[in-house]
Amino acid sequence: MALLPASTCRRLRFIFQTLIKYLHGFVNETDLTTDEWMAAIQFLTRVGQTCTPLRQEMILLSDVLGVSALVDSLNNPVEGDATENTVLGPFYTDDTVHIANGEGIASEGKGDYMYVEGQVLTTEGGPIPGAIIDTWESDSDGFYDTQYSNRSHPDCRGRLRSADDGSFGFRAIVPVAYPIPGDGPVGELLLTMNRHNMRPSHLHMMVEAPGYHKLVTAFYPEGCKFIQSDSVFGVKKSLVVKLEQIDDDDEARKRGFPVGASFKLMRLKIVMLTNEQFKYYRAKNAKSKETV
Ligand code: BEZ
Ligand code: FE
């Protein structure tokens, strides 16, 4: 096995010493019985055994315990009006449809019409042209295209670039709330804890531009009944958006919807940190001195 650099070894020792300290604290505080510890070991074993190349129950466990969201928040500090990061989730795929500004990501019948328009900006308010915007969402039945065994092509997902003034726009569908997988050990855990397994409606977005820190985020239309109780703790106040109802033939036609169609409008302002800004804020916010 290759030797690890000394700083990595130091960091690993620090991580394990801290983990053991809190684990012992937990066992002491709960006065854990031998049977309970054995049940915990069996539970974790089942979580591992439920994983397949297409299903990652271990990540799902981290998600419902709020650890994924916490790690994400620690590693992506909130700064000024920069758009906040949130959990990526398991449904991102590089296999997507490249679209031009103004085109659509969802095939007909996948859900109610929505148009997403916005601008990618610097923290000073300048435009970021040529940013690559990846977006994905479930259909109105609450399933991502990758959850269908007969998937033949990407649907409800697309990749486009911001224009010279940083603007972008695309047709999509109104997001709906959906359940995360509940038929495995993580589902049982949620039931035991009297928690539901729903995610509030959302549209995922990943934005990349040269010189800027990659943004992984999602936008949550206000009013969803699960917004205060997201099973994976991904909602942040700044990511909750208002959808406008548009009932205007000209506006529908302009955006490529059928004549007479009504649609929802999601307006977004995406503010990115430069790599230098990100490095500076991440170091400033670090809680531990024992970093690599
Ligand atoms: C999602 O939003 O796609 C997601 C995130 C975490 C766990 C499951 C799903
Ligand atoms: Fe999602």
From TrEMBL:
Record domain Intradiol ring-cleavage dioxygenases: where: 89-251
Domain of life (superkingdom): Eukaryota
Coiled coil residues, start to end: none
GO molecular function, one term: ferric iron binding
SUPFAM superfamilies attached to this UniProt entry: Aromatic compound dioxygenase
Alphabetized InterPro entries for the sequence: Catechol_dOase_N, Intradiol_dOase_C, Intradiol_dOase_core, Intradiol_RC_Dioxygenase
Catechol dioxygenase N-terminal domain segment(s): 11-82
Family in the record: Belongs to the intradiol ring-cleavage dioxygenase family.
Alphabetical GO biological process terms: catechol-containing compound metabolic process
The protein's name: Intradiol ring-cleavage dioxygenases domain-containing protein
Cofactor(s) required for function per UniProt: Fe(3+)
Keyword annotations from UniProtKB, A to Z: Dioxygenase, Iron, Metal-binding, Oxidoreductase
Protein's organism: Pisolithus tinctorius Marx 270
